[in-house]
Every structure is written in C-alpha cells, then in structure tokens.
C-alpha cells in the first residue's frame, strides 16, 4: 500500500516538475539598478507571475545606461533589455542590430521640474536659467533640445549643466540648479525634501518617448516566443498599474523589499507614472509604436546632428509582439 501511494504521489508531482523545467531562463538587462521605481512594471509582472505564465523565468541585471544595454543585447549577451524610445535610432545607425519591441507608455518619460522660487513661467522662462541634465549624450538632454526648438530657443539660451543621476535631486534640493529634466521619482524626492516644484510637460512640445523593451534581430528571428512573452507580460503590468496604482504599489514593494516603509512615496510615484507617462493617445494601443512619431524624432535628431545616418523607420521597432 505504501509503495502504491508513493508511486501515485510521484505521478502527481511529475506535471509540476515538468512545468518548472518548461520555464525558459531569460536575462533582461535594465539601464539602471532593478530596484528603481521606473522599473516597477517589470517587477510587478514578476510578482504577479506574468512571465511564468508565458513560460519564462526572468532574471534582471543592470547595464550601464541604455546605449550599453542596446550594445549588449545586439551582441547576444542578453536576449532582451530596456532603454528609452530613442535608443534604437541612435545605436542602430552605428551598426548595433537591435530594435524596440514594446513601448511602455504613450508619453515622454521626462518632464521639466523647476524650482518655484526660480520664477520660471513656462518653457520661455528657462532663458538664462541653470538647467540640469544627466549628461550631454542622454535621451533627456535630447528631449530638452526638442522642447527648446519648439519655442525657437537653443541650448545656448540656457545654462545647461551635466550633473549626473545623483545631481538631479541633490543639486535641485540645494538650489544649485533652477530646473532639471526629471522623471517622476526624482521630482517626488525633491518635493519630499520640502522644495516647491513646477512641472512642465515635455510631451506637449516634442514627441519624446517612454521606456522600451529591445531585442536583437537574431533573437527576434530565433526566439520569438521569448520576445512575445516578455513584451506581453510587462505591457500587461503597465496597463494594470494605470488602472490600479495602489495595488501595483503593494505588489511592487512586496517584490522589492528595500522600499518597505516608503509606501506613501512609492504610491505617489506610481500615480504620477500612471497619469503622465503610461497613457496613450486616443485610438492608440498601449505597447505599440507610432511610425510617424518615431519618424519625427529621427528627423529632429538628423537635423541637429545627434545622429548622422537615417535608419529606415521600420528597422527601429516592430509591433508584432504586442496587441
């Protein structure tokens, strides 16, 4: 009797073991540490089992910025990685064979955060002001150039300073710069420190993009199920974060325990992403790219010598892996 029971138990366990073995290991490279709130949808999808449901066992690793991630993905060192939406048009022009496969929001990742004490009234009010950017080869800086151009202005009309990631909050809090090209978590940290901030929507003036999922031409051809599964899982998490930021906050903090005790701040950040970065334009589907938007950005980059070669727009992204 005992032997028969053991055999039955083994037989019942086999499907579960088989399912576990069916999970395909996937490394996803992020441009910065995985615990940052910018990557909350990636973590929420992991917490809720969305990758596992697609047959994927996902591990996150950090690269050194979007361009580095694109280079690693293009070289086959990882099947997937993340960056900002303009990255593929910059690196592909230099021979890196990557394209974007999912767009994680319909609006710009960036906005301009200005100290209220600086008295900056809209974009024209930035003239002569000290404005911080991460660096001069960063997507946020390029987006700033686009916004300025829309107002007939140039970078020389401002005192633009490359202040790095840490400086984006520290120098704003100290009053060493008047404004920064910011993301939601940086602006929240500045406000949490007691600094009153005015925010200006860049999306209203220049079609900068949100984060993207990237893959190489080789991976797209050889492992389409992996690309589709990851894209579908993370886009689902973005959609659900928009619908219920509070629930996403709970799952994110549970998945990333170093944020325990910061639930109020994380909740504010999630709501800001849900309201300002993730929404799409009417008639547009979350996750998909608009070819004309990409073409407009590329045209600006060419005109301003950010890139020197125009890559065919259809080589910069694909919508085949998202709904």
Explain what the structure shows.
By secondary structure, this protein is α/β, with parallel strands linked by helices. It folds into two domains: 191 residues, Periplasmic binding protein-like II (D-Maltodextrin-Binding Protein, domain 2, 3-Layer(aba) Sandwich); 94 residues, Periplasmic binding protein-like II (D-Maltodextrin-Binding Protein, domain 2). Helices cover 44% and strands 16% of the residues. The chain contains 13 helices and ten strands. Strands 2-1-3-10-4 form a five-stranded mixed sheet, with helices on both faces. Helix 6 links the parallel strand 6 and strand 7. Helix 7 runs parallel beside helix 8 and helix 10 crosses helix 12. The longest helix is centred in the N-terminal third of the chain and has 21 residues. 47% of the residues are buried.
Strand order of the largest sheet: 2-1-3-10-4
Taken as a percent bin, the fraction of beta residues is 15-25%
Number of strands: 10
Give me the secondary-structure category.
Answer: alpha/beta
Largest sheet: 5 strands, mixed
Topology as a string of helices (H) and strands (E): HEHHEHEHEEEHEHEHEEHHHHH
- Alpha carbon gyration radius: 21 Å
Tally of separate helices: 13
CATH class of the largest domain: Alpha Beta
Q: What is the helical fraction, as a range of percent? A: 40-55%
Q: Tell me the distance between the termini.
A: 52 Å
What general outline do the C-alpha atoms trace?
A: globular
CATH architecture level-2 label of the largest domain: 3-Layer(aba) Sandwich
What's the number of structural domains? Answer: 2
CATH level 3 topology of the largest domain = D-Maltodextrin-Binding Protein, domain 2
């Amino acid at each position: 009797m005992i032997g028969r029971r053991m055999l039955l138990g083994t037989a019942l366990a086999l499907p579960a073991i088989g399912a576990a073995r069916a999970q395909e290991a996937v490394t996803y490279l992020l441009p910065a540490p995985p615990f940052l709130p910018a990557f909350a949808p990636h973590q929420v999808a992991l917490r809720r089992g969305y990758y596992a449901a697609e047959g994927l066992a996902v591990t996150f690793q950090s690269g050194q910025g979007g361009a580095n991630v694109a280079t690693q993905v293009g070289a086959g060192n990882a099947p997937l990685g993340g960056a900002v939406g303009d990255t593929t048009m910059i690196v592909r022009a230099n021979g890196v064979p990557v394209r974007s496969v999912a767009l994680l929001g319909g609006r710009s990742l960036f906005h301009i955060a200005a100290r209220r004490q600086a008295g900056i009234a809209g974009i024209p009010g930035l003239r002569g002001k000290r404005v911080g950017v991460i660096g001069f080869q960063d997507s946020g800086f390029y987006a700033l150039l686009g916004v300025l151009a829309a107002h007939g202005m140039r970078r020389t009309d401002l005192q633009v300073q490359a202040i790095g990631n840490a400086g984006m909050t520290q120098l704003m809090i100290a009053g060493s710069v008047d404004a920064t090209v910011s993301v939601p978590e940086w602006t929240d940290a500045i406000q949490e420190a007691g600094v009153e901030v005015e925010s200006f929507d860049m999306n209203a003036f220049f079609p900068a993009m949100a984060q993207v999922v990237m893959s190489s031409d080789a991976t797209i051809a050889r492992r389409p199920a992996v690309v589709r599964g990851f894209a579908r899982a993370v886009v689902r998490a973005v959609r659900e974060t928009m619908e219920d930021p509070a629930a996403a906050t709970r799952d994110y903090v549970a998945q990333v325990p170093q944020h325990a005790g910061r639930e109020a701040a994380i909740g504010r950040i999630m709501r800001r992403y849900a309201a300002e970065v993730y929404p799409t334009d009417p008639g547009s589907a979350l996750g998909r790219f608009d070819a004309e938007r990409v073409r407009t950005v590329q045209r600006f980059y060419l005109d301003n010598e950010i890139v020197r070669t125009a890559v065919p727009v259809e080589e910069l992204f694909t919508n085949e892996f998202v709904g």
